[in-house]
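[SOLVED] Need 3D model of a two-part complex

Original post:
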Amino acid sequence: MTTSSRRDFLLKTGQGLGAAALAGLVPGTGLLGSAHAADLIDPLAPKAPHLNAKVKTVIWLHMNGAPSTLDLYDYKPELIKLNGTAPPASFMKGIKTSTQGGVGKLFASDRTWKQHGGSGAWFSDLVPNIATQADKIAFIKSSVTVGATHDISILKLNTGDLNPGRPSLGAWVSYALGSANPDLPPYVVLYNGKNEPRGGSVNWNSGFLPAVYQGTAFRPGSSPILHLERPELRTAEQQRTSLDLLKRLNLGNAARYPEDTELRARVRSYELADRMQVAAPDAVDLSKETDLTKDMYGLNDEGSASYGTTLLRARRLAERGVRFIQVVSGAPTEDAELASWDAHSDLEKNHKIMARMVDKPIAGLLEDLKQRGLLDTTLVVWTSEFGRTSYGESGNGRDHNPWGYTQWMAGGGVKAGFTFGETDEIGLQVADKDKAVDTYDLQATVLQLLGLDHLKTTFLNNGRSERPTVVYGKVIKELLA
Amino acid sequence: MKKITGIASVLLLVAGAAWSADADMDTDWMRAIEDANKSLSSNIALKNAKGATQDTRELEDMFIKVEAFFTAKGDAHDAVDLSRKSLELTGQINKSISASDFDAATNSATTLSRTCRTCHTFYKKS
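Solution:
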């Protein structure tokens, strides 16, 4: 290696790694990562799916902290009957509780239940607005995962592994399908509340895929991407002139060194940044939305306004062709005591606040997508890292439950008004283990709806062919229309 | 007294050996199976028949040992059945690879991985 090429190598790898690290660590700096992922000429060029795609966009609603789906969707009269008694041994078979805080008495919260829609799906009084959308929803009532800490199980939900290092589902989608809008990133992460989501950027990382495919976290507020705005002292014309000069110089060099894809990627990235200065703030600017729409998303209620704003932004991003929008639920207000669904104690208080935060916005999102003709091409996934136990903890809370909980999907290609699987009579474990839906199966099904065969979505990493579902994954065909 | 001490020592040794076998099954064996399974999945995806066949041979040897372990352990019918199912699936994968039907091999390999997960669930129970 000559001195010159070694210098080039160090410069490029240093910049690339630095940018990737910075982009991964700081929300809103995903753009920098793309500036140096120059191993392909245009890694974000649109690519054809393997199959007939049912949807163009996924809105992945992660309920952070794990709601008790027993108190939202999974009505269990037997649990109410056995309230306050020790769980019968037959229901506990196979459960290891040593690291989950022990087993309390069975606990039925103070809920009222009603069937809704033509499907007759059960909903509790905590989600009266989502209940109005019953016939758009396909429930998975036999969800399972590996129960560990929140951070580890969230990582598995998003990346398929218990350790950091694998790409998130959104990164695989960006890699496999490219971008449908050259002015915006194909994979955006949204959250409400002042803090970045629990677990952080490993949950939207590109892992061993090139950094260009990682998610770009949009911060709440009018300036979604850090350092994206043009400095006040610089006019738009000055910036344009400077970018034009830079482009001429870089293209000149690119012509001299045609094998150097870094240069072309850099030009592309500067141009993308320029376009994003307009496109990204416009995508999250709600000033042109009507009051009716804002009310539909619960923006007129302090308890749901922050999450509603996030979901309205999600719809605007879906309209603009963003492929994968990962929305992580946060705190209802900046000074809220609660920032997650993690109700180890006082479930009543926690779930009333958190359900109020998401209920109207989620119902509004489904209805709004439908009215705009977008629901047929969008997939909404309501998911969490695990569920909560039917036995109580701390008297009035519930512990983590990875053995049987509910998730749901709505949108294009989904068998609306259908329920797949069930839990046992007290809602603790899946009733039929052959119908258990692990995170890999959920991911395989989402990819299928996007037109991607999870077995053929592969990337060669250190000589090994890797896929999103690791070595697992089964498309749940019963959920498909 | 000496006799009682002797019996206790033998029991401790036996218990220790059993614990050690369990520990081996939990760590080294299962990790080796997991590694071979991941390698198999990759080789099938890359249509590397030679590498995939080598992986299935390794897996077959290991599943035979797993079945023998759980048979000897007793009261682990699920694990014995799942070991047999895994062995059958490995045979199916071999046939598909020989016929250059890598799609079928991928499907069988995914079923094999799911069987491994199911076995881990049961194994935790027993």
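Edit: Chain A touches chain B at residues 93-94, 96, 433, 438, 455, 458, 460, 464-467, 470-474 (CB under 8 Å).
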